[in-house]
Every structure is written in C-alpha cells, then in structure tokens.
Design a protein that fits this description.
By secondary structure, the chain is an alpha/beta fold. It has ten helices and 20 strands.
C-alpha cells in the first residue's frame, strides 16, 4: 500500500474573499488570483497548501503558484484527506478502473487532469508506452510518483510499461514560470510506437507528433463516419497523420483525398496508409486547406463525404471572433463540395468555441452556402477524456455529422 503520510510542504493557508470561490464551490478545482483575500503563512510556489473560505470554512488541499492566474489547483476537498501517496494511488486506480469499463484500453488517455482529480497532468497510454504532459509547477513535483503509480496499477493487470516519454513542451507552461521540456523519463526506447484503433494500424511518433503524438479523443468519432463511406468519394481536411481518411478507406471508400499543411504529418500519414494496405485508395497531399477548398470548388469537384477536423482556431477568449470567421469559412466551403444528399462531418476541438457558438457558426455557413442540414449525430470526445461537470475546461470537442441537402 502507498504511503499514507501527508505531502504538505507548507503550513500556509489561502483565504478567499467573501463571495468568491464560486467555481470551487460548484465542483471545480481552480482558485483564481483575484478571488484570494490573503495568504497566511510562508510558502514556496509549488507547495501544497490549505484553502479556506473567508469565514475559516475548509475548502480543500491544493498546490499554489502565484505566478499563474490560476493560483491554486485543488486535489482534495476533505480536511481528513490531505495529499498523500495513498490518495494519489487511489486517483490513478480509479482512473484506470473507469477506462476499463468505458473504452478499448490498448491505447487510451489514462489520466485527464482535472477530470481525474489530478489537475495539471495528462498521461496517454500507447500500447506499452506512456506519454506524460505536465503543465503546472505543483503537479511537476508529483509527476514521477504518479507515473510510478500508473506502472504499478497497470502491472496488476499484466501490462508492463516498457518506457515513458515526456511531452511537457506546451507554451502554457511558461505561464507557470516553467521551461518547456521533452525527453525520456527512465530508459530510452523506440519512440515510434505501433497501435491499432478501430482496426486501423498507426505508427505514433511520441517524440515529434503533435501533443502526445496522436489524438485519441476522436476514437469513436472516426468509427462513426465509417458507415457513410462505403463505395464513396471522400475528402478529409486537416488529416494530420491520416486517421479519418484511413477509417474511411478501411470502410470501403472508392477514393479518399486527404490534406494537411504539415509535410511531416503527410509523410507519417502515407506510412500509415501503407501499413494498412490503403496506399492505392487513400492519397495524401500537403496543402493549405483554406486555399485548396475554393480551388476545388472552382474546378467543379464534388464529394460524397467531406470531413473537417481543424486544429483549435482559438486558444483564448481574445481570439474567438477570428476563430468564428475561420470555422464559418471552412464549413461553408466544405458544404459546397458535398454532393446533394452527401455527408459533412465537422468539429471544433477548442474549449473556447462554446457548443452554442459552434452550432450557430455552422448554421450561418449553411445559409451562406445555400444548403440545408439534416443532423445525423452530435458527438463529443471519447469517454477516456471524461467531461467533468463544473470543470468546463474538460469539455472541448464538438463533433457533428450532417446530411447536406440543396435548398
């Protein structure tokens, strides 16, 4: 059993202003800098501290960093449950048990930050490799302990982890006063890992791929488009390493044209196509989607299925207006390329692009394209990326499938 001794590096207490801490009180994990009245006692940034309401009522145990606007991230809400190795083990164990009940765990998101009550850390499992992304100073102190606990819990199910790679190279770390970092944690290994998802084989480049190397959140959305693709002509935009395109190809599409701006991604996608024997059906090209779509329209191209899986056009509230323009443009262009009665799959992976705003933007695009949309499905991220109510940041992926009809 893990150590039950409290990991409390400071006796400091954060005192909230009267009427503040609304997010924390409604079930969230964050305390913002402007919600704090004062901090009693000495501490170092990264320390575990207590959080009290203005009247002394205990609110939780969390770690502090005054360099961040999110000054405290809470890991435990019970005064009798301070942060211990035993508590961290329970968090990891519960996260794994949950995933075993809801997803194919051969490759999955094992730890999803706040939604697994371990704020600031993400751990993806690709077969027998773990990829960790640590974004905050406080969780960095527990990172190796959490990784070791993951190995321990997985080993109980006969899963031996051969290696761990760190991808803590996101720019957001700088807001915590942290350097961006990547590299092996422990022994080195081949960083190109083969996985199978929905029957499709992929090589995941955990060292050089985007984020942790592969977007596991679209797992079941990729499967959902398969039933529309048999004997169909498909266009997959922002294909990255080819995941939607390969699902379409494996489902029996007559042809798939797949596009991404990144030459590296396209090279990897071609490797993946060969791995699945689909190199004659699924063709990849490096191009700017915003330039290609109007060009295809001018050439009179039409497709049975168009898939739009763009990167997040906005990563903060300040750029939402420009993001809306981008989503409206690609959806309007995409709809114009769909044959009458064909299908459009479209999504947004930006947390700041709220569901209502995204659906409104698609509706505006349809009006501009003179198309009518019949909604087939609305989906979100795979359940190994759980949406924790009151932790809004955990809900980010919106995914629609529409039938596109001429007005």
């Amino acid at each position: 059993m893990a150590d039950n001794k409290a990991i409390v590096a400071s006796e400091a207490t954060v005192i909230l202003k009267k009427g503040e801490g609304r997010l924390l009180k409604s079930g969230g994990a964050w305390v913002f800098d402007n919600e704090i009245a004062r901090i009693d006692g000495p501490f170092n940034n990264g320390d575990v501290i207590a959080v009290n309401d203005f009247d002394g009522y205990f609110m939780g145990w969390g770690y502090i960093n005054t360099k961040s606007k999110i000054t405290v991230r809470v890991l435990s809400r019970k005064i009798e449950e301070p942060i211990t190795a035993s508590l961290l083990e329970r968090r990891v164990r519960e996260a794994w048990e949950y995933r075993k009940s809801v997803v194919d765990t051969s490759s999955c998101r094992l730890i999803f930050g706040e939604a697994d009550f371990l704020p600031g850390i993400t751990i993806d499992k690709f077969e027998d490799v773990l990829v960790v992304e640590s974004l905050t100073l406080g969780i960095d102190r527990f990172k190796v302990m959490i990784i070791d606990l993951c190995k321990k819990v997985l080993a109980e199910d006969g899963i031996v982890i051969k290696g761990v790679y760190e991808r803590s190279d996101a720019k957001v770390r700088e807001k915590e006063g942290l350097q961006r970092t990547k590299g092996f944690i422990g022994a080195e290994f081949d960083t190109k890992v083969q996985i199978v998802e929905n029957g499709v084989k992929y090589i995941v480049d955990v060292e050089n791929g985007q984020k942790t190397g592969f977007f596991l959140d679209q797992k079941y959305n990729r499967a959902a488009i398969s039933r529309f693709c048999k004997d169909k002509k498909v266009l997959d935009c922002f294909t990255h390493t080819g995941s939607f395109a390969l699902n379409a190809g494996l489902a029996g599409a007559s042809s798939v044209r797949a596009v991404d701006a990144s030459e590296l991604a396209v090279e990897q996608a071609r490797e993946n196509a060969k791995l699945n024997g689909l190199e004659d059906t699924v063709k990849f090209e490096a191009a700017d989607v915003f330039e290609l779509l109007p060009q295809l329209e001018a050439e009179g191209e039409q497709f049975d299925v168009v898939i739009l899986d763009p990167p997040a056009f906005t990563k903060n509230r300040a750029s939402i207006k420009n993001a809306v323009k981008g989503y409206r443009e690609i959806n309007m262009r995409g709809m114009r390329l769909v044959k009458n009665g064909g299908y459009l799959a479209t999504c947004s992976c930006s947390h700041f692009m709220a569901p209502d705003l995204f659906s409104k933007t698609i509706a505006e695009a349809a009006r501009s394209a003179h198309k009518r949309l019949r909604q087939v499905e609305f989906r979100t991220q795979a359940p190994d990326h759980p949406i924790l109510w009151a932790a809004d940041e955990s809900y980010y992926l919106k995914f629609y499938i529409f039938q596109v009809i001429e007005e």
